[in-house]
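ok here's PRC and DUF2382 domain-containing protein, seq below lol
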Amino acid sequence: MIGTDTISRVIGKDVYDQSGEKIGSASEVYLDDETGQPEWVTVRTGLFGTKESFVPIRDADLTDDGLRVPVSKAAVKDAPKVDTDGHLSPQEEQELYRYYDMQVGSGQTDTTTGRTGTESTTGLASGTESTTGMATTGMTTGTAGRHDVDAPGTVGRDTSGPTTDNAMTRSEERLTVGTRSEEVGRARLRKYVVTENVSETVPVSREEVRVEREPITDANIGNALDGPAISEEEHEVTLHAERPVVEKEAVPVERVRLDTQTVTEQQTVTDEVRKEQIEVDGDQGTTGRGTDRRV
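and the structure came out like this:
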């Protein structure tokens, strides 16, 4: 008998009919909320596992090879089409019970009327619940919904940890690139003295001795006869010359200061980022084998 402690082992198992023929793979388990025991299992059938059919799991057996249900593959193939959207209507539940020729719910005895009556609730083991019941004058059923033993309101069951919801979140890392200012160096002004040779050209003049001779004329005869006729005499001339003179003085020539300017350039940043991939893996039916899809 399948119990709530083995639900996690049922999900994803291959499902075989009463003669051992494979039907498909188990997708979702519905619980009877009155007894807390599994009532239905949805089985994915078809070439790519796109069709899901409700199959009774009340008297099913779970083995290492898979799940064996007490109905035939043909019966599952022709089972009423019921949407696995998380809620079974009373009409859908009654239709399933009638189709598989099953009693509604757990089969409890109604001591008031002496008739065998039942009142149960069934829900999907991934978060829905439903209510079915039969009174002495007729059968009444409530709505069916999902009911998960780990997290109410979810579809499916996480096999790697507590069930959260009906979806798997795919995350990835992304680069956030910005800039920050940091000290990369320092610049300073330093004044020092160097010596260099400077050449300048300046004109200079000097006096030279030149001898001039003039003949005796009536104009200068008086000067010529002034003094003794024959004598010794000296005449002196002072000569002058210019020499270059150098003087030095310090004069300001410019003002120097430090300032900064911003230069923008393009730099390429390269790093590794991680991202999650989600793939679908599993048996997709008996008539063909589906391929893994990576999301």
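fwiw Helices lie at 7-10, 73-77, 90-99, 221-224. kinda neat tbh
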